[in-house]
Amino acid sequence: MAIIDTLSENRTQVTSFVLVFTISYILFIVIYRLFFSPMSKIPGPWMTCISTAPETKALKEQRRTQWVNSLFARYPGAVAVRTGPNSVSFNHPDAVKAIYGHGKADTDFAKSSWYDSFSTTGESLFSTRSKKRHAMKRRMVAHSFSAQSLLSFEPYVDVTIAKFMQKMDEFATTQEAFDIYFWFELFTMDLMGELALGNSFGVLEAGKPARYSALVEQSQRFSNIAGLLPFGKMSVRILSWVPVPYIQKLWAARVEYLEYARMALERRFQNDRNKVLPTGKPRQDIMQRFIEARDPETGRRMDFDELRAETSSLMVAGASTGSVTMNWMIYYLSKSPSVKSRILVSLEQMFPDNVDGSKPIPFTRLNKLSLLEHVEMECLRLHPPIGYTMPRDTPPQGAVICNVFIPGGVAVGVPAAAIGRSPSVYYDADRFDPDRWREQGADGATMKTAFLGFGYGSRQCIGRNVATQFIMKMIATLLLRYEIAMENPSLVLGTKEFTILKPDQKYRVMLTRR
């Protein structure tokens, strides 16, 4: 009995020691982060110093971008705010260049572990963290987004725009007010189906979204939450084990989404890879270019899993961001008749044989209309599809960013939505004014540096030209073809955050054939 009592007493002492040690360690970490860490002087709510809970809560409540913006408003004049124990957001053009610009190997800011959660069946151009693998992938697919490729994609854009206009003609005939953003989403989903999978989803004809679009959103939300966990690639699997209905719903959507992408890509391989057009040449869409792509240095081609990962990434990047940008362009042009009138006059002068918008508009001529492109840029400044920080890790030795020292291994970045409305960069920052992009000299250069609508540096969106092509063609065709009026001209739209920033309420327009 004495031995048993001794063992029991020892076990109690060990348990007490472990408990005291654990509590002491936690207290030490909390005190260090609050008062002695090199980042303790960076402004931010005290909870962000010790936990990612505030950011996670904001993400779940679909207001992470607004939350970060509120921190900068709470600490006016601060170039940096603490958003987590190991994360800092900046709001200055110099930080854009320092974090996202081209640096030397020993001062490079690598992508953070947040991106690992977006790697699905393999690393995509977006999710890969390796600078070497990113450079290799970019070499392989760069030709897919060249000017020559844009010409080969244009017939698919024209066909899909024609289908869209058939639906718009019906609304113009009935004079019925309708939610144009809903139809933009259907358009971009069908178009990206054509370009990425070789076949549209048929959602324009059906007049309702495919289940795939909901799966994309839910899967991206799961990745965002997983990216806040400090476990790198394991965070996705760890999060999938959490027995919370909300998490399990998002995980099930991710699994279904990836399976859908696999089956769609397999159909593409079986049915369309060798498909030839009347010209006798293979079908030239984005996926065909990806299939044929070779690394010019090694001759390597992408395997099926890589193609599947790129397909998933393309569907998100092209469909979601394109539709919301067109939405804001129509919204602001409806509220800015003078700007809309100037664009229309230019379009009628450029295309005198197509003043009713009944013919496809060639992008090789349309891309010379700088005012229309400036409208796109201004909408992306005010409402970037991705408003929060695209995180990078500071180099091991740390870095000084805007005179603020950040230790090594800290996730840093510049939120596009915050710097896009920075009054120190943009005059009348909350006002829609596409003419600001005509600014030359130092002010113009600073504005362009702070513009993160397509990212910045070597990692900026490689599909920018493709997106600009179909966005400008769509808006130009709508303006030539219809008089567009908002049902409620006094309506003011805000944003609500899903994976991307979307309008916070529906707004309806009415069309009249010109």
UniProtKB/TrEMBL annotation:
The chain crosses the membrane at residues 14-35. Its cofactor is heme. Pfam families: p450. Keywords: Heme, Iron, Membrane, Metal-binding, Monooxygenase, Oxidoreductase, Transmembrane, Transmembrane helix. InterPro entries: Cyt_P450 (IPR001128), Cyt_P450_CS (IPR017972), Cyt_P450_E_grp-I (IPR002401), Cyt_P450_sf (IPR036396), Cytochrome_P450_monoxygenase (IPR050121). The keyword Transmembrane helix applies. One of its GO terms (molecular function) is heme binding. Heme binds at residue 461. It comes from the Eukaryota. Belongs to the cytochrome P450 family. This is Cytochrome P450 monooxygenase. It comes from Melanomma pulvis-pyrius CBS 109.77.
